[in-house]
């Protein structure tokens, strides 16, 4: 048996089409198109590339993309002031501060200045808190949302399943565990201190690997027929390298997301969906 490879590019294209349709319906009623403001501070080449891709995808769906590029030596207070101006700007529906920020900047202070009603990333404590309460949220962190969408589109059973999340970051692992819990999975979160990791993951129907350790999840970590979602994107000589060792996992798993072309394209698609949701919530679309 060989795993079904989950085509994140195709699902992301379909989500982008849905968002474009939603934007058309929103503007048909006379409203201005949703606007996403992005703060890109400094000269991080990878961040600049991600932001270019976000801009292109936003514009292709009819979302207005407003880019702010303060210099790398901008002090924290100036960045906070910039985010506060965007917060007060009625024309801006969603704000994203691209991470990482330069080392002299107090990242938390800048991210905390993004209000929950314009929180494109879903990182605000109020939005994460709502997620933790199991309440309906209009935004959630984009990468875990993208993983949930892949599970949904491929009709992979989540309710009643056993899911193991590797990693406990606020960007992926923690919100992933909350989304799976809210979808009635029984969830275990593993991390660098977990003992006998492979014994834990072998119990799982769904494994989400988000630890940033290239090819760490090998075939002996996987229950036959399980779904393995690979969030890893460590830069390698010939492109990104996932957390999953495809050569040994593909013959064992039931489904597998490849790297590249699995989870990666979903992150931007879900950012666009979050932006449209925020515009609707703010302006009643
Ligand atoms: N840098 C890497 N991933 C992300 C993300 O999802 N959001 C933001 N704001 N920055 C990032």
What's the SSE blueprint?
Elements: E1 4-5, H1 8-28, E2 35-39, H2 45-60, E3 64-68, H3 76-88, E4 94-97, H4 107-112, H5 125-133, H6 142-153, E5 162-166, H7 173-182, E6 186-190, H8 197-201, E7 206-209, E8 227-230, E9 234-236, E10 239-241, H9 246-249, E11 255-256, H10 264-283
Parallel strand pairs: 1-11, 2-3, 2-4, 5-6, 5-7, 7-8, 8-11
Antiparallel strand pairs: 9-10
Helix pairs in contact: 1-10, 2-10, 6-7, 6-10
Short descriptors:
10 helices, 285 residues, Rossmann fold, single chain, six-stranded parallel beta sheet, three-stranded parallel beta sheet, alpha/beta, binds guanine, 15% strand
Describe the fold and architecture.
- The protein has 285 residues and is α/β, with parallel strands linked by helices.
- It has two domains: 30-118, 3-Layer(aba) Sandwich (Rossmann fold), CATH 3.40.50.10860; 142-265, Rossmann fold, CATH 3.40.50.
- The chain is 41% helix and 15% strand.
- It is built from ten helices and eleven strands.
- It has helices at 8-28, 45-60, 76-88, 107-112, 125-133, 142-153, 173-182, 197-201, 246-249, 264-283; strands at 4-5, 35-39, 64-68, 94-97, 162-166, 186-190, 206-209, 227-230, 234-236, 239-241, 255-256.
- Strands 1-11-8-7-5-6 form a six-stranded parallel beta sheet.
- Strand 5 (162-166), helix 7 and strand 6 form a beta-alpha-beta unit.
- The mean pLDDT is 97.
- Residues 96-99, 121, 142-143, 171, 267 line the site of guanine (GUN).
